[in-house]
Design brief:
This protein has 323 residues and is of the alpha/beta class. The chain contains ten helices and eight strands. It has two domains: 202 residues, HUPs (Rossmann fold, 3-Layer(aba) Sandwich); 71 residues, no CATH class. The strands form two sheets. It has a six-stranded mixed sheet with strand order 3-2-1-6-8-7. A two-stranded antiparallel ribbon has the order 4-5. Helix 1 crosses helix 2 and helix 2 packs across helix 7.
Length: 323
């Protein structure tokens, strides 16, 4: 693991401090700030990577990164997809399809020690994993970093040990393997309370916890409605031949221009089904039968469909390197 963060990177770690989405009152201002942050990321960092879950936020970020790289003649960073073994198959299919469409290299970050254990023991989500059977690397995280005292933990993503091992350890190992110095992610202020104090450039320099790097958060100032507005005003019209000019918002999967199918649009099929936030297949519920962008975005909670034990632990998980 790299012991120190490079001192050649010059970014403003206070950018965004004491701000909120209302400081960027319209979509144009939000997009301009996202472009500014992304351009800085692609020019200041030697080896940035962009996180991509297949969800709306990270897909918006990947689109902005791709557009900025194209505009300024910069290299498109590798996308890191954390495969925690509990994704909807639709998510894998979506990522594979749009990685090909957008000529994006995807690195699949997995905790393969746990994956092998699960496969060898034919486990299903919720079954127990014996800590003594894991690698020294994973036992170190369980015993010394999490200070977890039980002999087993459930094979579930939305738990303290499960989330850390399946997502954070996989991510940190990927950052070390790829020698990443800047992680571009789709974190937003309004999405979760533990993220409300983040800045556009956020240091993660403690080598005892993670490979030293910075988090770069170009859409920090977007709210959920603005994310969807960006899709229908920018991303979809730009990417989909035959789609109406900016502003057309489909009411369902059948409300599309002639010759355009749902698979032609860079929006995960789970959002069309009514999911607003995408977690694991076994612990995420759809919020409504309407597509996500048509639901009551202001009057209801975006992550209500997620298992809440992980939501309650979010601040502690983020201290250990979770997004």
């Amino acid at each position: 693991m790299t012991a120190t963060f490079p001192d050649t990177i010059n970014v403003d770690y206070t950018d965004g401090q004491n701000e909120d989405p209302e400081d960027y009152p319209n979509l144009q201002e939000k997009v301009e700030k996202a472009i500014e942050v992304t351009e800085t990321a692609l020019t200041e960092y030697e080896n940035p990577a962009v996180m991509w879950t297949g969800g709306k936020d990270s897909t918006l970020v990947l689109y902005v990164v791709k557009e900025v790289a194209d505009q300024y003649g910069l290299e498109l960073p590798t996308a890191i997809f954390i495969d925690h073994y509990q994704h909807f198959q639709d998510i894998h299919d979506f990522v594979d399809h749009w990685a090909d469409e957008w000529d994006t290299e995807v690195y699949y970050a997995r905790n393969e020690d746990i994956g092998s254990y699960v496969e060898e023991n034919d486990l299903t989500p919720g079954d127990d994993i014996e800590i003594d059977a894991l690698s020294e690397h994973n036992r170190h995280h369980v015993e010394n970093i999490l200070e977890y005292e039980d002999e087993t933990f459930p094979f579930l993503l939305d738990t303290y040990a499960g989330n850390h091992l399946l997502k954070t350890v996989a991510l940190n190992d990927a950052l070390e393997d790829l020698e990443v110095d800047g992680v571009i992610s789709g974190v937003r202020w309004d999405e979760q309370e533990a993220r409300a104090d983040e800045t556009f450039f956020s240091p993660r320099h403690d080598p005892d916890i993670y490979p030293p790097h910075d988090r770069i958060q170009p859409i920090l100032h977007f709210d959920e409605a603005a994310v969807w507005e960006a899709f229908w005003h920018y991303i979809v019209p730009d990417c989909v031949e035959g789609f109406p000019e900016e502003g057309f918002v489909p009411q369902n999967a059948d409300d599309l221009p002639e010759g355009v199918g749902q698979d032609d649009i860079p929006v995960s099929p789970k959002y069309w089904e009514g999911f607003r936030s995408l977690g694991s297949e076994v612990s995420t519920q759809k919020s409504d039968d309407e597509p996500a962008w048509l639901q009551d975005l202001e009057g209801t909670t975006e992550r209500a469909g997620r298992a809440q034990d992980k939501e309650d632990l979010m601040e502690r998980l983020r201290d250990l390197g979770y997004m």
